[in-house]
Amino acid sequence: MNQASSHNLLPLLDLRGVGKTFLLHARSREPMIVFKKLDLHLYAGECVVLSGASGCGKSTLLRLIFGNYLLQSGAIYVRHDGGVVDIASSSPREILLLRR
Amino acid sequence: MTDPYPSVLLCVEELTKFYGRRTGCRNVSFQLWPGEVLAIVGESGSGKTTLLRCVSGLMPPSSGSVHLSDGSGRTIDVLTLSEAQRRKLIRSDFGFVHQDAHEGLRMGISAGANTGERLMAIGVRHFGRIRAESLSWLERVEMDLSRIDDLPSAFSGGMLQRLQIARNLITRPRLLFLDEPTGGLDVSVQARLLDLLRELVEELSASVILVTHDLTVARLLSHRLVVMQKGEVVETGLTDQVLDDPQHSHTQLLVSSILQT
Amino acid sequence: MLAGCNPWGGYNFAYLDEDTKRMVRRALLKAVAIPGHQIPFSSREMPLPYGWGTGGIQVTASIIGPADTLKVIDQGADDTTNAVSIRQFFTRTTGVATTEKTRAATIIQTRHRIPETPLRAGQIMVYQVPLPEPLRVLEAREVETRKMHAYQEYGLIFVRLYEDVVRYRKIATSYNYPVEVNGHYLMSPSPIPKFDNPKMHRSPALHLFGAGREMRVYAVPPFTSVVSLDFEDHPFEVQRWDQACALCHSRDSFLDEIVTDDRGGRMFVCSDTDYCSERRDEGDAS
Q1: B10-108+174-256: CATH topology
Q2: Contact residues for A4 (Cβ-Cβ < 8 A; gap 6+)
Q3: What domains can be seen in chain A, in order of their start residue?
Q4: Do chains C and A touch by CB distance (3+ pairs < 8 Å)?
Q5: CA–CA separation, B213 vs B48, rounded Å?
Q6: Distance from CA of C214 to the nearest CA of B (A)
Q7: B66 to chain A nearest CA, in Å?
Q8: Does an H or E element contain A96, and which?
């Protein structure tokens, strides 16, 4: 995956050590590891392109940021309302508010 | 008692209902915020209807508590109210749409009377006003106004559910309980009814607790989801998150069983 | 045995045994203490079938004494079959004086009318009631209707009035018109025409209601408020006639329509026979 050059400003979106594993109970409980320790920064006004082979985790990453998927480790920091919120530890209500 | 959660509308704690030795629901806890739609899903027998009936004051639980915020910073302990107070609360603050419309309507009086009954129950004594409000709500639920004076026994399943909705919403209850609102209806009728519910809920910023075995209904209508199995809560969270990334084995089973259309 | 009484072979005074009378009187006392509230009582087997006034007869039998004067009317008339039979029943079992004059009576048993002549303090009206529960038509469950009365949840009776206005453009209920007693209980005044409802409001007399088949008694004590229910935009109205009584020319009484021939001829006559004849006597005298 590519990343644009960093700015002096603080990132809008800051992923740190994100780990995502799927545990499919119906399929012999074999854990499917998608990420182990992913880092990613996004600054205001930036456009980041996620590209990679099919199945490498692009949509999974988007869904994690959106709050659609739960992550197993790490944090996803979003700047909101003057402060910083960690999506990974936010309550469902907070995520709904953020989505707006 | 001053409100520990200033913005929570309903707080259910350790709600348990036994039928003799059989468990209806056990140690169920959740909260509901104003303007939120919470869906309780599970297979039949998972305890969801039992839970709904206990929370809405229709059935006394074996143990647990239900606290309702009264809108001015204080909470009402719903389960310890006297019967007179409880009936009054149910009449003024709650709406309950039953799965079987015959339970939620009076089949012997006209559609307009069914819709207007709650107004008359809270003391409105002006016929013209009762009639006007009934007409207005029947229109909101997209019913044919020419049928306002017909008996519900002549109505189809979809119309009966619309009538139930109108009957309950006319007094703008703070909390709406829906028990399988689209159960037993055929698919196109279901779809239209769901659209209607979605519009009304959004328009009124209603707080809703919805029980359904149909995950599609839950996805369409609810913000948050509680998954029940054998009377206990096994998973809870944002609806799209629970349905797209189910963690618990039972949830995964439910989700994978949805027929792909 | 009372002098002048024609013994009916071993029956107690007023037919009922003393224990039964005591039970009914206890129920009546409760009824008077809670105006408009239905009190259950243990209805006895009477020598006439249900639906013919067994409740009213049991109430009268429990309160009547040797010093009373009894009047019995049916649809306002003293001379109909039922009124005559009931009057004879009490004559035989009590020997008590009877009268057709409202003014002279201490107890008036009635089916379907209140006399036109205003009642005075000390008089007791006994009503025969078929269905004591005004909510029964809309709510079949006894448990529910009892709760509705207890919690004053009377929205349903207005539903009944609403349906009337929808169907007939006005409140069409013309008899057994629901009333609110003493600002609390909803009561069915028995199948009297709504014309008679205002007579109960703050009446100096005691009004007792007996339903034998349904096993309930209820009461309206003297000077109690009795208000007929209505909508703000459809207020309560009594019946009015264009004609006056053909016999006594009264314009204030409830009139019966009598078909006189088979060519559409009809005349209107006071339903209350005593009132009508009294007016005619006064008319002759003046």
Answers
A1: Rossmann fold (3.40.50)
A2: A43, A46, A47, A48
A3: 13-99 (3.40.50.300)
A4: no
A5: 9
A6: 23
A7: 20
A8: helix A92-99
Tokens found for residue C159: 């539903």
pLDDT in the model for residue B2: 42
**Backbone dihedral angles phi then psi of residue A38, each to the nearest 5 degrees:** -95, 135
B81, B102, B127, B150: best mutation site toward chain C, by most C Cβ within 10 Å?
Answer: B127
CA distance B230 to C12: 67
Is 0.90 exceeded by the ipTM? no
Going across the sheet that includes C107-111, the strands are C39-40, C216-220, C206-211, C124-128, C107-111, C69-74, C97-98
What span, in angstroms and rounded, lies between the C-alpha atoms of C77 and C75?
Answer: 6
User: Which chains are adjacent to chain C, needing at least 3 Cβ pairs under 8 Å?
Assistant: B
A45: left (phi over 0), alpha (psi -120 to 50) or beta: left
How many CA atoms lie less than 13 Å away from A98 in the CB half-sphere? 25
What is the per-residue pLDDT across C156-211, written as a single tens digit (0 to 9) for each? 999 999 999 999 999 988 899 999 999 999 999 999 999 999 999 999 999 999 99
For residue C166, which residues of chain B lie inside 8 Å, CB to CB? 110, 112-113, 131, 149
Per-residue pLDDT of A14-61, as tens digits, reads: 888 888 888 888 777 778 888 888 888 888 888 888 888 887 888 888
> Is C5 part of the annotated catalytic residue set?
no
